[in-house]
């Protein structure tokens, strides 16, 4: 990180704080050459460990492309997908881990996707939770129904 005033390469950190979204760290730095102060925003690293063992940097666009398939033909807008990916990233970063399994990312997607579109949720869940039979689908649908009925009951009171 070069000093924006004199281009010196060295600076020392005088203050660090996590940004509100939890995804980046705001650092107040002081140049060791000219003594002037400047602020940097640094994204904290978050790696996803794939089933193959390969790690890659977490990316919202990967979350979106994974979910988009499940949303085919559903009334889901690009904006909805962007918001969902943000929710997922914030939920994962809130755990404070530097690495996460790809499967965990998939599981983290389930809850906001369930809010977004129940059919897309069922499609996605069938892959990530490894639905193997009609009973698995029935159970998931039953749980969606119970939730819906619970909400309807709440509205009545
Ligand atoms: Zn400087």
TrEMBL record:
| Gene that encodes it | nrdR
Name assigned to this protein: Transcriptional repressor NrdR
Q: Which cofactor does it need?
A: Zn(2+)
So what family is this one in? Belongs to the NrdR family.
Give an example GO biological process: negative regulation of DNA-templated transcription
Main role? Negatively regulates transcription of bacterial ribonucleotide reductase nrd genes and operons by binding to NrdR-boxes.
Organism of origin is: Brevibacterium ravenspurgense
Question: PANTHER family of this UniProt entry?
Answer: TRANSCRIPTIONAL REPRESSOR NRDR (PTHR30455)
Q: What remark does the entry make about the cofactor?
A: Binds 1 zinc ion.
* Taxonomic classification: Bacteria, Bacillati, Actinomycetota, Actinomycetes, Micrococcales
């Amino acid at each position: 990180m070069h000093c924006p005033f004199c281009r010196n390469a060295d600076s020392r950190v005088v203050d660090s704080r996590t940004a509100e979204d939890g995804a980046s760290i705001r650092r107040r730095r002081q140049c060791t050459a000219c003594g002037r102060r400047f602020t940097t925003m640094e994204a904290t690293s978050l790696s996803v460990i794939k089933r193959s063992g390969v790690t890659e940097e977490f990316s919202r666009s990967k979350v979106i492309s994974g979910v988009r398939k499940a949303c085919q033909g559903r009334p889901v807008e690009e904006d909805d997908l962007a918001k969902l990916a943000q929710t997922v990233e914030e939920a994962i970063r809130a755990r404070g881990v530097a690495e996460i399994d790809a499967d965990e990312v998939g599981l983290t997607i389930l809850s906001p996707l369930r809010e977004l579109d129940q059919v897309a949720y069922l499609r996605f869940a069938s892959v990530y939770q490894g639905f193997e039979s009609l009973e698995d689908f029935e159970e998931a649908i039953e749980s969606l129904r119970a939730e819906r009925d619970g909400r309807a009951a709440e509205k009545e009171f």
